[in-house]
Amino acid sequence: KVIQDRSFDMSTVSASGNTVKRNGHTYTSCFCEENVWHLARRMSETHPERRRHAVFLSNKAKTLAMWRQGSGDAREDGFICWDYHVVFVMEGTDHEPLVYDLDTTLPFPCPLADYLTAAFRPTAAIRASFRPLFRVVPADDFLAHFASDRSHMQKDGRWLAPPPDYAPIATAASTMNLATYFTMPGDGPGRVCTLADVMQALTGTSQ
After folding, report:
1. Angstrom distance (rounded) from CA 162 to CA 166
2. Would you state the pLDDT for residue 23?
3. In the structure, what pLDDT confidence band is assigned to residue 8 with cuts at 50, 70 and 90?
4. Active site amino acids
5. Which residues, in sequence order, are CB contacts of 74 under 8 Å at separation 6+?
6. Are the beta carbons of 57 and 64 closer than 8 angstroms?
7. Which terminus of the chain has a smaller tally of CB atoms within 10 A, N or C?
């Protein structure tokens, strides 16, 4: 994920090298999977009793249309086309799922139903190849098994975007399995859903 980050309210950011604090959480631009891993780890410590998921967003063509993204075109309501994106979802005090997207201009966190409508515009006339698929992974599984050596962000020996200041995330079994999460459809962790059924996957109810 490489694009200039240009339209955020900078009052939500405190700088310290490549990795900063955004809305109080660890954040490095263009490394959404690692941002969510750290957010999930923090929430597992502070809210272990709540339902928590890491949700990878992509599609077969890796052309994911999203609105209300801080790096998107401000003239088009924050529209952007990502290859993939990652968000964290956790149930709130009233059991309503809340989306924690560190790259959105929507409220943080945002009610799931509101986020799906604003970020993906289900009634918009766009090609099917731009519609999202969602890989819903229980947060504890994500924390236990996810690994990234950041090689996807390097080309010809150069970084496509400045990497995080901390060491890469690894497990005893793997140093790189990111593609198994964002490749959709396909085998991989969790459950792959469409826009029509992701609400049910995260709440047990339908939209």
Report:
1. 12
2. 75
3. very low
4. 32, 85, 101
5. 7
6. yes
7. C
CA gap 87, 36 in Å, rounded = 6
What is the C-alpha separation between 166 and 17, in angstroms, rounded? Answer: 10
Q: What share of residues in the chain are helix, strand, coil (percent, to 5)?
A: 25, 25, 45
pLDDT at 151: 96
Hey, how many other C-beta atoms are within 10 angstroms of the C-beta on 205? 7
Q: What mean pLDDT comes out for the span 166-179?
A: 97
Helix (H) or strand (E) holding 85: strand 85-91
Is the pLDDT at 49 greater than 60? The verdict is yes
Residue 148, helix vs strand vs coil: strand
Residue length of the chain = 207
Q: Which of 1-10, 26-35, 140-149, 179-188 has the lowest mean pLDDT?
A: 1-10
Residue 163, Cβ density class (10 Å: 0-12 exposed, 13-18 middle, ≥19 buried): middle
Token pair belonging to 42: 């923090």
- Cα separation of 71 and 203, whole Å? 29
- As a whole number of Å, the end-to-end CA separation of the chain is 30
